[in-house]
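Reopening this one. Same input as before:
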Amino acid sequence: MQKIKKGDEVVVITGRDKGRRGTVLEVLSDTVLVEGVNISKKHQKGNPNQGVEGGIVDKTMPISISNVLVFNPKSKKGERVGIQIAKDGTKKRVFRPSGEVVDI
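Same output, byte for byte:
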């Protein structure tokens, strides 16, 4: 079970985008794509056969999974996530400081 999943709201804790919040678009092996975070400019060549226009395009780049924390709406800050196994064998994600379930 992954600690950070697609659709989670996360907070960036280091780097030039520190403090910014966004939604996880995709989880790669050890990186995540976060909406509106780590944007870079890509100079794209046009291709009229495919209908692609050339120019400067904003592109979301991956950020390391260790540089983000899941946002807790109750405490209004990012918190670490752990995995707790219930007595019936099911796993659920919980916030480490409070023990509350992440998927509410």
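So the earlier flakiness isn't reproducible anymore. For the record, The two ends are 17 Å apart (CA to CA).
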